[in-house]
């Protein structure tokens, strides 16, 4: 327990707001994206700036409180909040400043991709970002960052130029290719293991209207469409990202392909024509649209507060056998909405970075796979969890041993090691240097030696 006098002194030194259990707003402040997460922190500090973050780190260290760091609160495993500890909440720190001349943008750690895109698109600019606007920039970037522009411009972390980080000793450091280079390497995929990132500086790119939308097929034709999609997407130019998803929604089961072509629209029409003309799609919404439109395609699906369970991996063999197994399981076991098996399109610029150049090492994968289950009633959890686990067991023989850390659940140290592969030992050495006591451990944790 922390003495009341210490809490009062801490509160008086903050510019932001401190929530305690019983305070008005406390229950709302402890909610995160995944409705399965129901944790009760001892304190929540909604920081107004870097000084508040430094004060919160120092207070937690001195009082030996467990610390969780909340950016967007979108992580499915719920590490943005903790029981009985202190939550450093960055959600008030949302400013985004764009330099269109140098094509850079600096954003605070509580900004979302909706915030970021709103500011950068005013200048016709963007960088690879999350495909749901409410996703925080911090968690996505620190885990690597998959998005609709990744085949043309690389992962989000590949576009990171610098970051301001409050470390476990309460100091503010700049990490870049010129300063604290080891920390900068670790931030590009190493999750939240090394400190609280209060701002990110990104390289941004010219992104005007894109050719994007959704092509939907009957589940009866899913196998032949997926075989075509596999071959077409693997050979597609880098301006294309196309994600194929088996899903059960309010209209029943189907196969949907979301495409985004970020080059010249006329060329995009030619490139996408084979996919759009294959088979007999029942819906085709592909059209020239603002980039923000494609970024919002999944907003209604991913409403905060729903209950989530995810399992994921990188496809080792996107073979005919894999397609048969995936579709047969989905067609035979799908129940009430919402269930999905999403195949995400990688390669291109992602694979031009060497595995050892950033903490994110899964550079050779052409497709990632995500098993996703969402539901509303806590009483239905066991059936939904059972479906997702059975689905993953069916698909696992076709997956690599590694996983995208932002999709990792509560798989423990073995899962974290698999996520980082050969880069794990280097990350552990950086952890030893910047956080030797494992102060920041509410994350996919890299343990100091």
Descriptive account of the structure:
With 449 residues, this protein is of the alpha+beta class. The protein folds into 3 domains: 4-89, Uridine Diphospho-n-acetylenolpyruvylglucosamine Reductase, domain 2 (2-Layer Sandwich); 96-206 and 422-434, Uridine Diphospho-n-acetylenolpyruvylglucosamine Reductase, domain 3 (2-Layer Sandwich); 210-407, Vanillyl-alcohol Oxidase, Chain A, domain 3 (3-Layer(aba) Sandwich), CATH 3.40.462. It is 30% helix and 24% strand. The protein is built from 14 helices and 19 strands. Helix 8 crosses helix 11. The protein is globular and about 70 Å long. The chain starts with a helix and ends in a 15-residue tail after the last helix.
Structure summarized in a few sentences:
The protein is an alpha+beta fold and 449 residues long. Helix content is 30%, strand content 24%.
Q: What's the helix and strand layout?
A:
Blueprint: H1 4-12, E1 17-19, H2 26-29, E2 43-46, H3 50-63, E3 67-70, E4 86-89, E5 96-99, E6 104-108, H4 113-121, E7 125-126, H5 137-143, H6 150-153, E8 160-166, E9 172-176, H7 181-187, E10 196-203, E11 205-206, E12 210-218, H8 222-235, E13 240-249, E14 252-261, H9 265-277, E15 283-284, E16 287-289, H10 291-295, E17 307-314, H11 320-333, E18 339-345, E19 367-375, H12 381-395, H13 412-420, H14 424-434
Parallel strand pairs: 2-4, 3-4
Antiparallel strand pairs: 1-2, 5-6, 6-10, 7-11, 8-9, 8-10, 12-14, 12-15, 12-16, 13-14, 13-18, 17-19, 18-19
